[in-house]
Amino acid sequence: MTDLHERLKTLIKNSDYDYKSLSLEIGQGERYISNLLSTKSDPGFTSVIKICASLGVTPNQIAGLNDQLKLVNDDIDNRIVSAHAERILTSVTREAHRKLSARGTGPLIDDVLTWWHQQHGVLSNFDRLSEHVDLYHAPDADARLPQPYMVGEQSLARVSFGVKSAEHLGYLFTTFDHGLTEKVKLAHVEATKGEPQLSIQEIEVNLPNHSFPLRFNYKRLLLPVRDMQGNQYILNYSQALE
């Protein structure tokens, strides 16, 4: 059976697009489709829907199923799109959870980024991931310190700093060096602009009950997210460096 990538090549060949123009049409870099086909990687659900709309086909046709209904950019049946999207999203979420269970460890940076892209930054399908991340209120112009909202049971802050709650983490920020807290706050401000912020951090902090500063090295991913009511947050997922 012809695989997805071969079917997609054929559909593009029979369309008015080439790889570059289709990539730009769906809001990606000009080599997105070329790279997708050459590496045989899986497109995310958002890209699948945009590709289908541009080519005038359905996800079932790309998947090789017998479905001749067509989607046209100006006249997309939202019920069809929603049904396909829900099935694809459920499958992606189930597979991500299976991989996490199989590893028996926390998620990878790629897992968190995949979830964020699939959910469009909305805090849904979040239960298992929530154990490993911290949420902060999105900073406003007058914020003096980072403002923790939720601390995950298995987040790096809880495990390494012994943080017990968002209030506890908020208190610790008042005891840290001003330069450190300002750096964290500015990173949160940058994340509110809409793009993931991935960095390597090396910090020294004085924690209660320790007579000397402790040094931490970790990877930090900051993502702009929002809840179902539209409240804005910054998601912090950090992994200690070995």
Rg value: 22 Å
For the secondary structure, the number of strands is: 5
Mean pLDDT: 82
Within the CATH hierarchy, at the fold level, what is the topology of the largest domain?
Answer: Beta-Lactamase
Shape: elongated
CATH architecture title of the largest domain: 2-Layer Sandwich
Question: In terms of per-residue confidence, which ranges show pLDDT below 50 for 5 or more consecutive residues?
Answer: 67-72, 100-104
Strand content: 15-25%
| CATH-level-4 superfamily name of the largest domain | PAS domain
> Which structural class do you get from the secondary structure elements?
alpha+beta
The main β sheet shows up as:
5 strands, antiparallel
Taken in chain order, the helices and strands follow as: HHHHHHHHEEHHHEEE
Protein name: HTH cro/C1-type domain-containing protein
InterPro entries: Cro/C1-type_HTH (IPR001387), Lambda_DNA-bd_dom_sf (IPR010982)
GO molecular function: DNA binding
Organism: Roseovarius aestuarii
Question: Summary?
Answer:
The chain is an alpha+beta fold. 46% of the residues lie in helices and 16% in strands.
Characteristics:
single chain, 242 residues, alpha+beta, 434 Repressor (Amino-terminal Domain), Beta-Lactamase, 2 domains, 46% helix, elongated
